[in-house]
UniProtKB/TrEMBL annotation:
Record domain Putative restriction endonuclease: where: 13-182
Record-linked InterPro entries: Nuclease_put_TT1808 (IPR012296), Restrct_endonuc-II-like (IPR011335), Uma2 (IPR008538)
Protein name: Putative restriction endonuclease domain-containing protein
PANTHER family in UniProt: SLL0198 PROTEIN-RELATED (PTHR34107), SLL1222 PROTEIN (PTHR34107:SF4)
């Protein structure tokens, strides 16, 4: 007879009580009750992140439609999920989810920049998690492929709204209507 061992999932409350080594430069997320260690981002990752955030921040500020945030910031989706997306947008109407503890609720737009160790987690695990929690738009950025995919929540499931590479133009957003982002400028050396 096969025995089954139950593994207890961490709650967000337990996660927030954990103490980490001060010399550890990693970031931690809680995904479906499991502790996930993230390494510090590479210079390429940071360069692309900064450029995306700059373009989005400029648009959001000019339109006065909400606030942009970047990692590390905790986003508490539910009792077993606390993630740190690379970039996120909270519209003014949802401003109450912005608290002193982090973002306590669901942002309208989240951006994940794929690193060599995060491909599966960003493409599958987080995409499904964000979809299940109702994140209206998910940007998946691949710096090595110089590709950005924009997924929009449609009837509870993500559909590809826009995708572009350095050679193929611009991406658009449903959450930030009217914005057109030239992918080439985001990946320029």
């Amino acid at each position: 007879m096969e025995s089954v061992v139950a593994v207890q999932k961490l709650t967000v409350a337990e996660f927030r009580e954990l103490e980490f080594d001060d010399n550890d430069t990693s970031w931690y997320e809680l995904i479906d009750g499991e502790l996930v260690k993230k390494l510090s981002p590479s210079p390429l990752h940071q360069r692309v992140s900064r450029r995306i955030e700059f373009v989005l921040e400029l648009y959001v500020t000019q339109k006065k439609i909400g606030e942009m945030f970047h990692a590390p910031i905790d986003v508490f989706l539910d009792g077993h999920n606390s993630v740190q997306p690379d970039i996120l947008f909270v519209p003014t109407v949802n401003a109450p989810i912005i608290t002193n503890n982090g973002i306590e609720g669901v942002p309208a737009l989240m951006v994940e920049i794929i690193s060599p160790t995060s491909g599966y987690r960003d493409r599958v695990t987080k995409k499904l998690l964000y979809e299940q929690h109702g994140v209206q738009e998910y940007w998946l950025v691949d710096p090595l492929e110089e590709l950005i995919e924009v997924y929009r929540l449609d009837n509870g499931h993500y559909t590809l709204l826009s995708a572009a590479t350095v050679d193929e133009g611009k991406i658009e957003s449903a959450v930030l209507p009217g914005i057109m982002v030239d992918v080439k400028t985001l990946f320029a050396v």
